[in-house]
Amino acid sequence: MSDARRQLLEAILGDITRLAVDAIVNAANASLLGGGGVDGAIHRAAGPELLEECRRISGCPTGEVRVTRGYQLPAHWVIHAVGPVWEGGGRGEEALLASCYAHAIREAARVEARSIAFPSISTGIYGYPVDRAAPVAVRAVRETLEAAPSVERVVFTCFDERTLSVYEELLG
Fold it and tell me: Has residue 3 been placed in a domain?
């Protein structure tokens, strides 16, 4: 990345629902109607309007994203990414996970978001090992940012110290 673009990638330990960024990414399920973990926390923090908008979207396939407003969140936008369930790595999980991150960056640029925060997609109840997921995430984001210079800041928001340490090591 050139100095002229000043794109910043960082990892933090925190609550994605409290971040003052333009867009946050929701580790959603295919229905987009809420669930556990990050998905449930985002739906609770955004308020009932988010669920109403998600119902109108009618779901999202694995590896893709859908965008909604942020409602009561500090973020203006929620980019719902449906990550893959880990099945051992032989069922296209890596490509689907990379697709989530790439599509999210593209959508952030489309809605003119200058900052975006990601959770560690698929590493919770979907069982994707963080040691394998984080390199995919960082690589996909870096590659996609080349075509999205308007996105200036990417925050990998980690739920625990172990996940944070993996991302910090990758980001140097």
Answer: no
Which residues are part of the catalytic machinery? 39
Report the number of distinct structural domains present in the chain. Answer: 1
Residue 104 in contact with residue 145, Cβ under 8 Å?
A: no
User: Residue 8's CB: how many other CB atoms inside 10 A?
Assistant: 12
Rounded-to-10 torsion of CA 26, 31, 36, 41: 40
Say if CB 46 and CB 78 are below 8 A apart.
Answer: yes
CATH of the domain at 59: 3.40.220.10
Tens digit of each residue's pLDDT (9 = 90 or more) over 27-71: 999 999 999 999 999 999 999 999 999 999 999 999 999 999 999
Three-state DSSP at 45 gives helix
Is residue 115, in this structure, part of any structural domain at all?
Answer: yes
**pLDDT at residue 7, rounded to an integer:** 76
